[in-house]
Amino acid sequence: MRIIAVTDIHGNSNKAEQLAERLKGEEFDIILIAGDITHFKGRESAEKSLSYFLELRKPIYAVMGNCDGRNVLDLLEELGISLHDKRIEINGIGIVGFGGSNITPFSTIWEFHEDKIWESLNRNYRDGDILLMHVPPYGTKVDRTFTGLHVGSKALRKFIEEKQPPLVICGHIHEARGVDEIGKTLIVNPGPLFRGYYAVIDVDKGGE
């Protein structure tokens, strides 16, 4: 299965339109969006960016980011593409999602205590599933801010160490675009789409 991984659009619908145009000539199976579709705005902003991807008529699933308005999750639910606190299965591969971030110093819109992240993942996950998260795991290359601080989720880190999912797609930390590993788990932060970044990831039914 070929995944197009997108994160941190932050309301830049022009970049969303450009990527959708590029994808019209590409072979892929699913688009996964790891949150921050808007920049502290609501469903109208999210709807505009998402519309370009929906026109591709491919499966799309998304979680909200900590900077998405409260009604963005409602929109994702109405469109049938929300993966927040849910599990879906496509082409024989399970995908579990959780949006928002762990608690930050900035009191953004969607923030959760670590125990909520831990509980949701443990409730929904089945062995071999992919994770679609907004927040990255703590203490990795993909959760380091420009000041050098690691600000990812410790609950997610612990979950990965214990369950070893094959792949985690995340975002949130714009400057931490990259790839890392925890044991057998591959972690991908595609980088923010508002700067033109996205990732193409190939996964087989064994999760590799």
Quick summary:
This protein has 208 residues and is of the alpha/beta class.
Describe what this molecule looks like in 3D.
InterPro entries: Calcineurin-like_PHP, Metallo-depent_PP-like, PAE1087_MPP. The protein contains five helices and twelve strands. It is α/β, with parallel strands linked by helices and 208 residues long. The chain has one domain (2-202): Metallo-dependent phosphatases (Purple Acid Phosphatase, chain A, domain 2), CATH 3.60.21. Strands 4-5-8-9-11-10 form a six-stranded mixed sheet. It has a four-stranded mixed sheet with strand order 3-2-1-12, with no helix packed on it. A two-stranded parallel sheet has the order 6-7. Helix 1 runs parallel beside helix 2 and helix 4 (114-124) packs parallel to helix 5 (154-163). The longest helix is centred in the N-terminal third of the chain and has 12 residues, at 43-54. The chain starts with a strand and ends in a 6-residue tail after the last strand.
